[in-house]
Specification:
The protein is mainly β. It has three helices and twelve strands; from the N terminus they run E-E-H-E-E-E-H-E-H-E-E-E-E-E-E. The longest helix is centred in the middle third of the chain and has 6 residues, at 71-76. The protein is elongated.
């Protein structure tokens, strides 16, 4: 079975022609504009949906799927997670990673001290923030910049960082 990644969730219907509003879970909109279909997962069932039309309006992503032509049919999919095969994701430039690729990685300071594991990656305009959770369940937020992140080792599932004085580690 191919591995899939969640790229969005259908939040609600829009209009009378069966459009839906998507909550972006991929942290970027490009996959919706570059793919033709998604797999909708809801209540243990799944179905393939073909994208007929897609547009961004008012900061929201509005999608029309083939065969869903009224709000009642569209409402059936409310809450469905939309997934695509990981292999369909566009290749990233060197030294750039998708958030799911580094979740769970151990994060070490440059001096070898373990900070914790990557719990999440928060996407903000300036740069991503790596959320590291320590064994004591405390969070350290580390900007994902070249100045702080010295190495990401996919094989060893490890990240080496050099923290600045103002980043407090408890």
């Amino acid at each position: 079975m191919e591995r899939q990644i969640i790229i969005g969730t259908i939040s609600k219907t829009h209009g009378v022609k069966g459009e839906v509003i998507i909550i972006n879970r991929s942290r970027w909109y490009q996959p919706f504009f570059e793919i033709n279909e998604v797999t909708a997962h809801k209540d243990g069932a799944q179905s393939t949906l073909s994208i007929e039309k897609i547009r961004e309006s008012g900061g929201k992503l509005k999608v029309k799927f083939s065969g869903i032509d009224d709000p009642e049919t569209a409402a059936f999919y409310r809450g469905a997670e939309l997934k695509i095969p990981i292999e369909s994701l566009p290749e990233l430039p060197d030294n750039e990673y998708y958030a799911f690729e580094i979740e769970g990685f151990e994060v070490y300071q440059i001096n070898g001290v373990l900070l914790g594991k990557v719990a999440d990656v928060i996407n903000i305009p300036a740069n991503d923030i790596i959320v590291v959770e320590s064994e004591k369940r405390e969070e350290v937020l580390i900007p994902a910049s070249k100045e702080l992140v010295k190495e990401i080792n996919l094989t060893d599932r490890k990240i080496i960082v050099e923290l600045l004085e103002f980043i407090e580690v408890k």
